[in-house]
Amino acid sequence: MTVRNAIVIGSGPAGYTAALYLARAGYKPLVIAGALAPGGQLINTTEVENFPGFPEGIMGPDLMDNMREQAEKFGAEVEYDDVVSVDFSGDTKIVTTDMGETYEARTVIIATGASYRHLDIPGEEEFSGRGVSYCATCDGFFFKDQPIVVVGGGDSAMEEADFLSRYGSSVTLIHRSENFRASKVMLERAKNNEKITIITNTEVTEVLGNDDNGVQSIKLRNTVDGSESTMSVKGLFIAIGHIPQSDFLKGSVELDNEGYIVPSGKGTQTSVPGVFAAGDAVDKVYRQAIVAAGAGCQAALDAQAYLMEH
Question: Taking the model in full, what pTM does it have?
Answer without folding.
Answer: 0.80
